[in-house]
Design a protein that fits this description.
By secondary structure, the chain is α+β, with helices and mostly antiparallel strands. Helices cover 46% and strands 12% of the residues. Strand 1 and strand 2 (54-59) form a beta hairpin.
């Protein structure tokens, strides 16, 4: 089966990964802290290239091109919620 055939059949090959990420639960605060540290709070790819005070090129955020972007944002939110609600930690360090 070629790549073109997969696109035409509209088979979502990432669906099992999406379901797995959405089903993840926080086993302990250490894992939740690690996820909050590894997954950035905002898209790190947006850039303005400047020459002096003038912007001559704007590179938009590319996060939306990531097919698992929504799952990563959701996972980070669940980790932050776990730390705040279940562990009573101050999450301002991760925001």
């Amino acid at each position: 089966m070629t790549f073109i055939t997969l696109l035409r059949s509209k088979v979502d090959v990432l669906q099992p990964i999406r379901q797995w990420m959405e089903a993840l639960e926080m086993p302990n605060p250490r894992v939740a802290r690690l996820l909050c540290t590894l997954i950035p709070a905002q898209c790190p790819f947006a850039r303005d290239l400047k020459w002096g005070r003038h912007t001559f090129l704007h590179i938009p955020p590319l996060c939306k091109l990531n097919p698992l972007f929504e799952q990563f944002v959701s996972l980070r939110f669940r980790a932050l919620s776990y730390l705040a609600d279940e562990c009573g930690e101050d999450i301002m360090l991760y925001i």
